[in-house]
Amino acid sequence: VLVESNFERFVRAKATIDNVYTEMRNQGAEPETRPGRKPHSRHTSKSSAHFRTASGPLSPTQNKTPLGDKKKNALTKDSEYGVQGIKAPLIEVAVKAEEVWGPALGGREREESLKAVLATVEKYSGIFEVGASIQGSIKRNDYETLVEEYTRARKYAIDAKAIADSAVQNQSPLTDPQTHQIIVTARMWSDVEDQITLFKREIWKRLAATHTDKEILDDNRPEAHLELIGILLELGVDENPIWIWLLSRYDYLRNKIIRTSERYRVKIEVMRRRLANEDRPSLRLAATSLRSAAAQSGKERPNTTDAPKIAEFWEQTHTAMNVMLSVQGGRLGEVIESWEAAQSFIDGNVQKTLPVGIDGQ
To answer: Which of 40, 204, 294, 295 would be 300's cystine partner, CB 3.0–4.6 Å?
Structure first.
């Protein structure tokens, strides 16, 4: 009813809107005409004239606007629907706004980021403290605390691995806290592994050198190797530290016996050659020496039973035999002591006092 009662107004309004849109779209272009038809209807012409009058009369300069400038403001895709002319000023305004508000907005983003980092640090403070605690324990030679902290670090790593494995099995995405926990734990575990690797390398060297370590020998700690073996077992090893210690002990004793015997052999040989270059004793002196050796009582023996050089030779030989074959402080005594230590490992008596290693390994 409303359209029927205002039909003429409705037609004029629609024609005006169509005409304005057509002019804006085809601005700067010649209007298309068909043969035998006028370019606009009566209503369209009036509406267009009415629009131009309402917009104000065109000045001579506006009438002479170049065709390229008119097309710049046309509602077409080529002119970006009329905003191409103000695109450059908009870009400049955006740059100025970024210069003015960029630092403030960036500071807010950094603040939020720092808050998130602080919350993560507070939540996983124990993970961040493990690396420094292990480093301090190594410097203080506090092996008990070192093992405790390493065990705690392994627990963190196992928990993070369980979260990742569960996400893979269930094919579910990780939450932000879980992602943070895995990343933090991975970095911590990498640092701890590097520290423990270097520490174990040093312990292996000390274990192989316990037989010659002056510090251990001066402190009179015969069981120092058991302490080092226990540390390696608790930290986890790929080789048996007991077997390594036994092999190092064997090599040490073997080399020591060779060096000692060679040193005394050279001394005795030098003295023997010197005696060989001397004049041979007379038969009378030889008979006197033999009678002196056969005497039963010490009172019957003369003060000097042989020449000084010969006596020195036999004294050196006697010393060499004592060093090599004495059970108390000699090389043979060290061999017996080493075998007793090996036998205690073979029987399994010492293993009862040692830790079982990580996960009973």
So the answer is: 295
Tokens coding 241: 């530290």
| pLDDT (tens digit per residue) in 278-323 | 888 788 877 887 787 777 555 555 555 667 888 899 999 999 999 9
Mean pLDDT of 106-131: 78
Token digits for 79? 């002119």
Query: Using an 8 Å Cβ cutoff, are 82 and 21 in contact?
Result: no
pLDDT computed for residue 311 by the predictor: 87
- C-alpha 313/C-alpha 278 separation (Å) is 13
Please identify which residue in the block is written with the tokens 């043969």: 35
Encoded tokens for 264: 């005394």
Question: Residue 189, exposed/middle/buried by CB under 10 A (0-12, 13-18, 19+)?
Answer: buried
The pLDDT value given to residue 329: 86
pTM attached to this predicted model: 0.58
* DSSP run (H or E) holding 296: none
